[in-house]
Amino acid sequence: MVPIHSIQSRLVCLAASCVLLGAGNVDAQILRGTARTQGSDRPIENARITALLTDGRGVGATTTDDRGRFHLRVSSSGAPFVVTVTRLGMRPTTSNSIMAGERDTLDVDFNVHEEGIVTDTMKVVAAPRLNEIRLQEAKRRGWKVFSPIEIAETRERVNSFEDLLRSTGYPGLIISPRRDDCIRSTRLNRCITVVVDGVPLSGTNPLINPRDVYFMAVLSPSQAQLQFGERAFYGALVVYTRAYGDKYERDRH
């Protein structure tokens, strides 16, 4: 279980200096000013500035620009009102009650305190690697699998891919000592298709470095045709190569 900390910001109005400057628009107050973080004095962009009467009715709203500045027209008819500052991901904060004449213009500056809040813990699960998924799928489909641990115990001691196949002791394959011959099935004595990382290969014995092999699987003719079509009519030998980060643990299932 890993605690994940998300940073939300609580807006705290530390200072709201309201200075009467003079007459403004008829039957409306004008509020202008900035919203900035405390300490760093960083402007708060796209914050919602809203004027509310004491009964909760909205009497004006605007949004700060990229410099944290705003210009708000308030129609309170001389009644007291408050100003709230909110932004997505932040908790709203409300100023003290403001009294102003119907045509006054006020300067209002907000200092904002950012505070980290700890959220509920979350369980983070890593996604399985591609070769782990391939191995699970091969087992699910009923293929004859030579597991990563079997391959890892042998591949460093053999000199060729053919020697790696022989080391498995599997009786269903005929591995010719000739490089120009193919790998055959003992059941049909026909060449089977070699598939490397999902790509069927043409030709005879492929040149595969045994140290590159992660796991292998043998497919019957029906399994191979279902998976690869007529390109693997007589069966298939599937080879998956190693990738960075692969594990070589014994099968725990």
From TrEMBL:
Q: What highest taxon heads this organism's lineage?
A: Bacteria
Alphabetized InterPro entries for the sequence: CarboxyPept-like_regulatory
Signal peptide stretch: 1-28
This protein's UniProt keywords? Carboxypeptidase, Hydrolase, Protease, Signal
Has keyword Aminoacyl-tRNA synthetase? Answer: no
Q: GO: which molecular function terms?
A: carboxypeptidase activity
Per its UniProt record, what Gene3D superfamilies does this chain match?
Carboxypeptidase-like, regulatory domain (2.60.40.1120)
A Pfam family reported for this protein in Swiss-Prot or TrEMBL: CarboxypepD_reg
Q: What is this protein called?
A: Carboxypeptidase regulatory-like domain-containing protein
Q: Which species is the source of this protein?
A: Gemmatimonas aurantiaca
